[in-house]
Automatic annotation (TrEMBL):
It comes from the Eukaryota. The lineage of its organism: Eukaryota, Fungi, Dikarya, Basidiomycota, Pucciniomycotina. This is Uncharacterized protein. Residues 413-422, 439-456 have a biased composition (Acidic residues). It comes from Puccinia striiformis f. sp. tritici PST-78. PANTHER family: CHROMOSOME 7, WHOLE GENOME SHOTGUN SEQUENCE-RELATED, DYNEIN HEAVY CHAIN TAIL DOMAIN-CONTAINING PROTEIN.
Length: 456
């Protein structure tokens, strides 16, 4: 075993790599770039192509070589036998490739006009795409990779101790080191798979159009809305509705009736929130349909980065607001108390509607129908008509939500008049006052979707 391929030399190399957590932190140009010459645009396109077709695939292969050199792809019950020479080679390759990837994305992203500029003509060099690539590359190389190397360091260290431990006096220590070796080895294997997926996501983003990149973010918002619907449906299921125990037997009937009436109001409110979530999901499903036979429009390519960033962020913004309202309504049901003021919740719903209006305006301007499928008289292919119909349904749903909210608030106000010692919070610095943990993901679900469920 050569001097540079001992376990100690590998540990030193891994310590150095673990400390390289600022690969992509080069200084940006002092003067902002206002215009890109054609030769610079062509150079940027080549670097993006190199990332997609050469550097990122090689980086992924390097991770696989490192996993094999550490002998972590065989029987997990036997002590691995790392190949130190190939381990050093794999670490060097990953390090060099990481630096090349950083240089490429820095040159592409840093030397770009600001997003407020009209960069619609720059194609793949728009700040919208290069900024996202830089962000995800930086997360991979400055956050995930150093931690990955730290686990490799821990693995080699525990492996070394387990090999050197001998004799009955050291039996317990050897067992402990073996357990640590196997545990860390399993963690490295899982982290390698996670890093594979991160690299694949970067490559896919480099291959995607602006519209396809946006659809990825919209799908994430749809997943959140579906979780909201699932949890609200579950908590309004008869078997999940909490029942109160009267504190005084002599007024048992009165307490039961009042508690039941209060709870029914919260159930009505929750069902109105289900409808809002479903309508928001319908809207995002409409613009995220992956079936080319059903998709009747696409997004124009003549969009600058500022507009694209708005299209990316707005759905996430109103989805987050709906998630907060969903959690609050669930808390209302489980405690039979309205935890937020009517004004603060109305303000949140107004904000959501404004965000949705902004999204619809942008989509109305920039969605282009497919000529072969476009039928002006069909609501399916005529997006403006579809939008008007959807907006009418949204306004109706908001109207019902506000009525249900007013009923809950009115009952709370009457209860406050009867009981001055009520200690729950009605708005404050945090108007929603929702618990940070929200609700559990492991509760049993029930199939009781509203019979008026929309068809996506």
């Amino acid at each position: 075993m050569g001097k540079d391929t001992t376990p100690d030399s590998i540990l030193m190399r891994l310590e150095m790599l673990t400390g390289k957590s600022n690969r992509c932190m080069n200084v940006r140009p002092e003067a902002p770039v206002e215009k890109l010459p054609q030769d610079v645009i062509e150079s940027k396109i080549k670097k993006l192509k190199s990332l997609e077709e050469e550097l990122l695939p090689k980086f992924k292969l390097g991770l696989g070589c490192l996993l094999r050199s550490l002998d972590l792809q065989k029987d997990g019950t036997k002590l691995p036998t790392p190949q130190f020479e190939s381990t050093i080679t794999s670490l060097q390759d990953i390090d060099e490739l990481s630096d090349q990837i950083c240089r490429n994305i820095q040159e592409v992203d840093f030397l770009s006009p600001p997003s407020k500029s009209h960069d619609f003509h720059l194609g793949r060099c728009k700040v919208f795409l290069t900024g996202l690539i830089f962000k995800h590359t930086r997360e991979l190389l400055e956050e995930d990779l150093p931690y990955y190397f730290s686990q490799c360091h821990k693995f080699i260290k525990s492996w070394k101790k387990s090999k050197s431990a001998a004799g009955k006096a050291r039996a317990a220590a050897k067992k402990l080191n073996l357990e640590s070796t196997f545990e860390t080895g399993d963690r490295i294997t899982k982290m390698t798979i996670d890093n594979y997926q991160s690299v694949d996501a970067l490559i896919e983003m480099l291959r995607s159009s602006d519209y396809e990149v946006l659809q990825g973010y919209w799908r994430a918002a749809i997943e959140t809305l579906e979780k909201n619907i699932e949890f609200l449906t579950r908590h309004t299921h008869p078997s999940e509705i909490p029942r109160s125990n009267p504190t005084q037997p002599d007024i048992q009937d009165e307490e039961i009736k009042k508690s039941s009436a209060d709870l029914n109001r919260f159930i009505v409110l929750a069902k109105s929130v289900i409808l809002l979530n479903k309508l928001a999901r319908t809207l995002l499903n409409k613009i995220t349909n992956d079936n080319p036979k059903k998709m009747t429009f696409t997004l124009t390519t003549e969009l600058n980065s500022e507009t694209l960033q708005d299209l990316q962020c707005i759905p996430g913004s109103f989805t987050l607001a709906l998630e907060i309202i969903t959690k609050g309504v669930i808390r209302n049901i489980t405690s039979n108390i309205l935890y937020s003021s009517e004004a603060s919740i109305r303000q949140a719903i107004t904000h959501i509607s404004q965000e949705i209006d902004s999204l619809l305006v942008l989509l109305g301007f920039h969605l282009v129908p497919f000529d072969r499928l476009y039928d002006r008289l069909s609501i399916t292919t005529n997006f403006p008509d579809w939008c008007r119909t959807w907006k009418g349904m949204w306004r109706t749903a908001v109207y019902h939500f506000r009525n249900a909210l007013s009923d809950c608030q009115r009952e709370e106000s009457e209860s406050d008049d009867d009981d001055d010692d009520d200690d729950h919070s009605h708005n404050g610095d945090n108007p929603f006052n929702f618990p940070p943990d929200g609700f559990s993901d492991d509760e049993d679900s029930h199939d009781d979707e509203d019979p008026n469920d929309d068809e996506d």
